[in-house]
Amino acid sequence: MRLGVIGLGTMGRPMARNLLKAGFSLAVYNRTASKASPLLELGAAWAPSPADLAQTSDVILTILPDTPDVEAVLFGPKGIWEGIRPGGIVIEMSTIAPDAAVRFARRLAEKACEMLDAPVSGGERGAIEGTLAIMVGGREDIFHQCLPILRALGQTIVYTGPSGNGQKTKLVNQLICALNIVAMAEGLHLAEMLGLDLEITLRAISQGAAASWMLSNLAPKILQNDFAPGFKIALQRKDLRLVREAIRRACRHEALERADREREAFPGAELAFRLFCEAVAEGLGELGTQGLITLYRRRA
Ligand SMILES: NC(=O)c1ccc[n+]([C@@H]2O[C@H](COP(=O)([O-])OP(=O)(O)OC[C@H]3O[C@@H](n4cnc5c(N)ncnc54)[C@H](OP(=O)(O)O)[C@@H]3O)[C@@H](O)[C@H]2O)c1
After folding, report:
1. Parallel, antiparallel or unpaired: strands 154-161 and 2-6
2. Ligand 1 midpoint to CA 10 (Å)
3. 87-132: per-residue pLDDT in tens?
4. Which CATH architecture has domain 168-299?
5. Which pLDDT tens digit goes with each residue over 219-269?
6. Which atom of ligand 1 is nearest to the CA of 11?
7. Distance CA 63, CA 73 (A)
8. Is 11 in the pocket of ligand 1 (CB under 6 A)?
9. What is d(CA 146, CA 151) in angstroms, rounded to the nearest whole number?
């Protein structure tokens, strides 16, 4: 089976490496071609455009920032649509709007092609170690057909139902993650304000009831003054924007009457979105999400 990967950023590069390590034949495309070099050295083939990549791949994996980027790579000039052959499968692994995922899958079906929405969780480390959580929406038989590919990338691979359900599940994941980041940053900032030693504080609390992925993986980075991404603050804000859009749709769906009902029903989503918007406005968007603590520190 010939695979193609489009998007060699923080996540896409190590994911492509793991597919090569698992023995798949792989073509790659990235907007900035130079990022492909380490993968070409490992045996990947370069495709000059998404259309070229689609022409020679049975299964195409995309991992790009946002909905418009995925739409451009799928259906824009020299996009996947121009090259994909009937029977081709797209595994779309970016975090994008669930309704867009459904729309893209329907359009691909016009060419007798399939699309799974298969967003991931577990961060750069999960991508490097091949331990991602992958939540998959789409046709169940196509999911089973693609499992050997997904197993090279992740550990917890769950079929969540029809097209769009993978992205809906990911939005639930992202709301919980964002609130955990806020909790971690605010908690550590309180420790600073109380004059506590952060390293001792972390040792004392990180195995108790306050334990979380964020506390284990991101808090140590704060202690080391390491604010490199990982997962960029700008991308977390994008995910919270998608969460809010999904909430608004769900509230409308339930025919709730008051316009601001979603704000009352999901106050945590509103708070996290506001904080991440403020962080981006203060120029912190390219930091890893642990950089949210900088917002607190600047205001102290
Ligand atoms: N980082 C994480 O921890 C993490 C975890 C889970 C899920 N995710 C999700 O995974 C996706 C990718 O995240 P990432 O952290 O890998 O992002 P990233 O490091 O910013 O990489 C994005 C990649 O997409 C390419 N790209 C951007 N816009 C494009 C466009 N319009 N057309 C073609 N290519 C384009 C970039 O190309 P260039 O090289 O030319 O810039 C780059 O290769 C996002 O949806 C994110 O929410 C990320």
Report:
1. unpaired
2. 7
3. 999 999 999 999 999 999 999 999 999 999 999 999 999 999 999 9
4. Orthogonal Bundle (1.10)
5. 999 999 999 999 999 999 999 999 999 999 888 766 555 556 666 789 999
6. 16
7. 10
8. yes
9. 9
Catalytic sites, residue numbers:
170
Would you state the structure tokens that stand for residue 252, as one six-digit string?
């409308």
Closest protein CA for atom 39 of ligand 1: 32
At position 146, the amino acid (one-letter code) is C
Q: What percent of the chain has pLDDT over 90?
A: 94
| Domain residue limits, the chain | 2-163, 168-299
State which of 5, 6, 8, 10 you would mutate to test the pocket of ligand 1, scoring each by most atoms of that ligand within 8 A of its C-beta: 10
Q: What is the pTM of this model?
A: 0.95
Q: Do domains 2-163 and 168-299 have the same CATH topology?
A: no
- For residue 82, give Cα distances in angstroms to 5, 69, 77, 249, 265: 16, 16, 8, 32, 43
Predicted confidence (pLDDT) at residue 285 exceeds the cutoff of 90: yes
State the fold for domain 2-163: Rossmann fold (3.40.50)
Q: Using CA positions, which residue lies closest to atom 3 of ligand 1?
A: 123
69 touches ligand 1 (CB under 6 Å): yes
Which residue's CA is minimally distant from atom 31 of ligand 1? 69
For residue 66, which phi and psi values (nearest 5 degrees)? -140, 170
Q: How many A from CA of 45 to the centre of ligand 1? A: 20
199 CA to middle of ligand 1, Å?
A: 32
Confidence (pLDDT) at 251: 84
CB 239 within 8 A of CB 174: yes
